[in-house]
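re: ur question from earlier - yeah i can do the single chain one, its not a big deal. heres the input i used so u can compare w yours
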Amino acid sequence: MDRLQAMQIFIRVAEAGSFVRAAETLSLPPSTVTSSIKGLEKYLQVRLFNRTTRRVNLTAEGLQYLAQCREILSLIEHTESSLTDSSKRPQGRLRVDMPGGIAHFIVMSNLKDFYRRYPDIYLMIGVSDRQIDLVQEGVDCVIRTGELLNSTLVARPLGRFRWVTCASPKYLSEYGIPQSPEDLSRHRAVHYFSDQSRRNGELCFVQNSEPLSVAVSGQGAVNETGLYIRMCLEGFGLAQLAGNIVSEHLQKGTLVEVLNDWQPPSVPVSLLYPHQRFLSPAVRAFADWIEEII
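and the output i got, formated as tokens:
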């Protein structure tokens, strides 16, 4: 039994939660994946997965073995890469998913710099604020904002976004400029909804390390950043957005920051990808580049 290959197959099954999906991503017959895991369990004399008709889940021993396999394979990869030609340019297709605001207002404005550095990478940018399954949807890495849920993916912190509360001049001329959260009872907000982030209908603030959530009425809700910004620009209400995403609007005066003394909590930004054993030079190049920008 090739134990290194068995470890690689084991990690992919653990990430995919399915023998069939793991086989597809590895371009192997499902029978090969199944027999490899059975051989590994027989060799180790422990059960690594609890199997059901729809999904496989790691046992306690499987979780422990997963962490150790990742460490071992990461060390091997580091050893091998240190001996390869460091001048070799990253190349190939790279599928990256990210929220619309980051794609339009951060990545797009720096995209020529990326291609100048990495002309041999064919970048496929997926734009969505929803949470996706990287393995199932064939995505190499994804940018996510907010606190992360438990995951088998590797999370690389990119930084934090400072958020601002803002509105259009048209809206402020009609409703006035709020001076404190207490004033928000007389205002409207553009509501944002998603499966795990900002709560619908509330604006969030922090002052003196104390969090505060205020329910603000509104006329509708969206779940995509570009549309969220557009509704704010059109005067539908207050919005809370990352300062660097709307910096151009703030500079031009098409949006105005309000409640400066009541800042929204900052939001972490992370890059997520399957474990390093399957991390291509193209993914590593993109990770370094986007961290530099963020």
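The longest helix spans residues 60-81. not sure if urs matches, ping me
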